[in-house]
UniProtKB/TrEMBL annotation:
One of its GO terms (molecular function) is carbamoyl-phosphate synthase (glutamine-hydrolyzing) activity. It comes from Lysobacter gummosus. This is Carbamoyl phosphate synthase small chain. Belongs to the CarA family. The active site is at C265 (nucleophile), H349, E351. The lineage of its organism: Bacteria, Pseudomonadati, Pseudomonadota, Gammaproteobacteria, Lysobacterales. Residues 1-188 are annotated as: CPSase. The gene is carA.
Amino acid sequence: MTQPAILALEDGTVFEGVSVGAPGLSVGEVVFNTAITGYQEILTDPSYARQLVTLTYPHVGNTGITAQDDEAHQVWASGLIVRDVPRRPSNWRSQIALPQWLSDRGVVAISDIDTRKLTRLLRDTGAQNGALMAGEIDVEKALEAARKFPGLKGMDLAKEVCTRERYEWTEGQLDLDRNAFVSAESRFHVVAYDFGVKLNILRMLAERGCRVTVVPAQTSAADVFALKPDGVFLSNGPGDPEPCDYAIAAIKEFIASKIPTFGICLGHQLLGLASGAKTLKMKFGHHGANHPVQDLDSGRVMITSQNHGFAVDEATLPANVRVTHRSLFDGSNQGIALTDAPAFSFQGHPEASPGPHDVSPLFDRFVSMLEQAKA
Ligand SMILES: NC(=O)CC[C@H](N)C(=O)O
């Protein structure tokens, strides 16, 4: 039996649809993602914590859900908003249908709303806070919950979503012919900060010969140095980078020690902050899998996967930080490199999960840095 669901926005707009997940109330910042595939990777990406994600692609759930495609061991998005979910999925890898998977995990989701109208509204007004309600509906209560959500600015979520315990990672990428993840021989030891890390990042490091020790967000630089790594990786993650003072302090020490350091997304923003730059909240951010980004060194344009609502403010970069990449959508910063330390970072997602692989050579650049430092 279909259950009703609503999406209430802080500006008072209410969308009525049907529930395709668990009953209940869930609040967060509403963001739109324009990728046409990868709904499972998006929902399990820890960077979406406290966000309600709407997908502009209208048919979501067609290929079902496969455990191997999880980017983390749980759904991190606070809710899902879509136009249409198929009656049944169809794919040889599918293990479970999207609505069942969502409701098993207590995730509130709505379908049958006009997602184009919602996206236009968010594009015009900027990302808004909202509330999803499914099952028993109380419009006033949902509107109040949407207005009460404090917003992501100033919210430190990295320390909330990260691993509690340190762990080792050696598994490479999925070999579909063998239906197994392949392990590679390791030549380097990398300490990866988990601010909300996506598993495909760890796999891409492992595939390139890195044995990875994943550590909690609040691990001190001294504890990292004690592990004697060849390099440090700074992961993606949810929330505002600015309040993550523990991470900024640790990264300052990595820069000073000249250990090879590579950051992705939140990790990029944190490297920027540790270098002395500032970050800003964008109007509606970048969330999609077809964003053009220019590599300023080569002039090449790459199509990239993106998921961020904050950005490094280029106007605040100190003299020892070079801009390496820029978004061709809005000219915002997409990459930096220090001129006096082997440290660089990228705002988008070179792990492309989901998305195109144009930026994956950045992992090779990090590995060359590890090689050079070791030589
Ligand atoms: N994917 C990420 O790491 C996102 C970084 C940060 N939370 C932002 O929204 O900008």
